Amino acid sequence: MQVFFSEEHRRHFPQAELNGGEFVTPFERPSRVEYVLARLNERGFAPPVAPGAPDMAVVRGLHDAGYLEFLEAAWDEWKAEGFAGEIIAASFPARRMQIARPPRNIDGKVGYYALASETAMTGGTWTAALSSVASAQAAQRAVASGARAAFGLCRPPGHHAASDMYGGYCFINNAAVVAQMFRNDGADRVAVLDIDFHHGNGTQDIFFDRGDVFFASLHGAPEDAFPYFLGYADEVGIGAGEGATVNYPMLPGTGYAAWAEALDAALARIKAWGAETLVVSLGVDAYKDDPISFFKLDSPDFIDAGRRIGRLGLPTVFCMEGGYAIEAVGINTVNVLEGFNDA
Ligand SMILES: NCCCNCCCCCS
Ligand SMILES: [Zn+2]
């Protein structure tokens, strides 16, 4: 399985994340991918290939133009406003306010486009996000050219990014871009399976009213887990998309047996729906020692999960999402890939 990865991810490393009223070292940090790279090498994967420039046409087809302009210009505008720190959202369009009118002021614009305050942006975030989606796109092209599967070692992740929202460490929705590329290549039905601990609110939102891309997510129940405000089991899609979204929210302490039941249910739905290609939002923060999650999967469970996904028998692109138990993120991520390869 070919891996695609860009060193440009390093341009995104905020100095702080707001967590529990403190500024801490961001959980989503560059060393995460170093552990994945080391494990890939240890397990004999071919050296990762650096992607070329991103194909912005498909990115623009999924993300709002104003949002992309905001992401690209934010740092300069933030600095021009005289702010000394990194970009952190502080004012949000809350209930019964004007939620569809972006302010002119950059502080207001940041809050308009952000879904949470934990995700800081720096002068290198935009470039890093472009390199991340370029890795995902290169993985899609490898599969579109005949490979059974490929892995976009994407950093920053993407599944929380909606067409016009960033947060949860995400800016451009890599998995959604890959799904759209499969559609553009002629696949009538594409499925996205999100096994990250956190609900892929951005991916769901992008495809919620579409009947050509199926979205299935296993995640911490929104009552208890970020992103909190999406991911309920009664969210099934609207309009042409009705029946093309399925959510499996699960409670704190969920172990692999129950999680695997949800995985099998999701895989059965994807198969019954008639998906021709599969995109996996590969987060491994369902791991028992993950610092910001509450499931209890152990490392061998990720091998079995990969095997179950592989048995679906679909051309598959894996996009790296979360996983914050830094010492284990490499083992757990590569375990999924190896389980898939063994299927
Ligand atoms: N400060 C702890 C809350 C975490 N909030 C963002 C989580 C994003 C996960 C991305 S996979
Ligand atoms: Zn996550």
UniProtKB/TrEMBL annotation:
Gene Ontology molecular function terms on file: histone deacetylase activity; hydrolase activity; metal ion binding
Classification via CDD domains: HDAC_classII_APAH
Any one Gene Ontology BP term: epigenetic regulation of gene expression
Cofactors demanded by this protein: Zn(2+)
Record bears the keyword Protein transport: no
Hydrolase keyword on record: yes
Domain of life of the native organism: Bacteria
Residue ranges annotated for the Histone deacetylase domain, each copy included: 28-336
Keywords, sorted A to Z: Hydrolase, Metal-binding, Zinc
Family: Belongs to the histone deacetylase family.
Protein name: Acetoin utilization deacetylase AcuC
Record organism: Thalassovita taeanensis
Lineage: Bacteria, Pseudomonadati, Pseudomonadota, Alphaproteobacteria, Rhodobacterales
